[in-house]
Design goal:
The protein has 6 helices and no strands. By secondary structure, it is mainly α. Helix 1 runs antiparallel to helix 3, helix 1 packs antiparallel against helix 6 and helix 4 crosses helix 5. The protein starts with 24 loop residues before the first helix and ends with a helix. About 2% of the residues have low confidence.
């Protein structure tokens, strides 16, 4: 018995899965710079908001040692350097950049040291910036020590422990306590802010260096 022929099946339509296109190194470096610029704008807005609230005046009067203002100045200088470095990384991520040309020259002259020289160019300046970021929190700890020294000095000058003198002493000790707290707060905040910027710069420098090495191979 002849079986009836089955009609041919219609070809199933295969849906193509869209491929995720990864952005180029140059695009990522450009995004990093603009992200830094946006973060700087937010930080400046916070500075102006603190000015309207009288926070800067309280900081100056609360910390007569000037350590907190030194930390703020250090943070501003390193932050501007981070922006300049982000702009420089943006230029080095492009094809035909200075780093790529220097690496090709190093591979021709000293192939064994070419990778080390590239690492020095990409990460050498960051080590100095990391030192300043660590110096911010160390200055905060120094201010804490100074504040406790001020409090200890006030206690040592107390001739006796009368009630009236103790009340005066407590008022005088608040100055040393303010120095300790203000410097610690400013130092920790500065260290977190600078550490975040430098971490992103390190990651971008790693990607650029890896891309240069991959193209060289």
């Amino acid at each position: 018995m002849k079986l009836p022929e089955m009609p041919p099946e219609a070809p199933s339509e295969v849906q193509a899965t869209p491929r995720t296109v990864m952005p180029s190194i140059a695009t990522l470096a450009q995004r990093l710079f603009w992200a830094w610029a946006a973060a700087l704008g937010v930080a400046l807005f916070g500075v102006l908001w603190m000015q309207t609230r009288g926070a800067w005046r309280a900081l100056v009067h609360g910390d007569p040692s000037g350590i907190s203002l030194a930390i703020v100045l250090l943070t501003a200088v390193v932050t501007l350097w981070c922006g300049r470095r982000a702009w420089w990384l943006q230029a080095q991520a492009r094809p035909g950049s200075l780093w790529r040309q220097q690496h090709r020259a190093d591979r021709s002259a000293t192939p064994d040291l070419a990778a080390q020289l590239l690492g020095e160019r990409s990460h050498g300046p960051h080590e100095t910036a990391w030192w300043f970021a660590a110096a911010a929190i160390k200055l905060g700890l120094l201010g804490t020590v100074v504040g406790f020294i001020v409090m200890a000095t006030e206690i040592g000058q107390l001739p006796s422990f009368d009630i009236d003198q103790v009340q005066t002493l407590l008022k005088q000790m608040t100055g040393g306590m303010a120095i300790a707290l203000y410097t610690t707060l400013v130092g920790l905040t500065a260290n977190l802010w600078l550490g975040l910027q430098l971490l992103l710069l390190d990651r971008m420098a790693d990607r650029i260096a890896a891309d240069i090495l991959a193209q060289a191979e």
